[in-house]
Amino acid sequence: MKVIKNGYLYQVTFLPNFFPVNCYLVEEEKELTLIDAALPFSMDGICKAAEIIEKPITKIILTHAHEDHVGALDRIKEKLPNVPVYISVRDNRIMNGDLSLDQHEPQTPIKGGVPKKLKTRANVLLKEGDLVGSLAAIETPGHTPGSMSFYDTRTHALIAGDAFQTRGGIAVAGDVKPWFPFPAFGTWSKETALESARKLADYKPDLLAVGHGELVKNPTGVMEQAIRSLEKKLN
């Protein structure tokens, strides 16, 4: 496990040298918000990081419902049963095992590791613009139909889940990077992911934090570069 602090954001990385999976602790005045729950064995590391910060985890937000983002969720909820779980209205269906598509959505199968044995269910369903502490929810479908990103209104840090990756080179979800192709393999709709990436670049964040890969400071330029890369491939 590796922990990197930037402002109010703590990146907690598991398997950093092999298959990096990130989750995040966002510091508020008296508490912490956990974004994603990483891998099944990650609970002890997440709780240890919170102990070092010396603030309690009082909210759990999920960027989307893939297994490498909800892996330790059941164990964390056993330890912290009163902490509410937040997920988008759309990905709540995936969390409950419903892989159906709406008529207006691209009719390609939902991909990636969809949890089959997850017991925990969400307490709060999020939509565009909802605030969770200092974090504004942004609907960024593409990797999954209900993927969400979160923008810290204090620091302009953007926690983008798998809408982008930085491992193996920065890329929009769906754009295969040979050194780390796995987020692309798990992406439902490249075209939808591209639209969401453009939306995120318009925020011009000061920091980009993703599910797989290192933090990127002043990322707008490389985000736009990644967008152009996928645009060329789709055209």
From the alpha-carbon coordinates, what is the Rg to the nearest angstrom?
Answer: 16 Å
Q: Give the name of the CATH superfamily.
A: Ribonuclease Z/Hydroxyacylglutathione hydrolase-like
Instruction: Give the total of domains.
Output: 1
Overall mean pLDDT stands at 97
- CATH topology, by name, is Metallo-beta-lactamase, Chain A
Share in β-strands: 15-25%
Counting DSSP H or I runs of 4 or more residues, the number of helices is 7
Q: Name the poorly predicted regions.
A: none
Note the main sheet.
Answer: 7 strands, mixed
- Fraction in helix: 25-40%
Query: Can you list the strand order of the major beta sheet?
Result: 1-2-3-4-5-6-7
- Strand elements, count: 15
The oligomeric status of these chains comes to single chain
Instruction: Please report the distance between the alpha carbons of the first and last residues.
Output: 40 Å
CATH class: Alpha Beta
Please provide the ordered H/E string of secondary-structure elements.
Answer: EEEEHEHHEHEEEEEEEHHEEH
Q: What class would the helix/strand composition place it in?
A: alpha/beta
CATH architecture: 4-Layer Sandwich
Assign an overall shape: globular
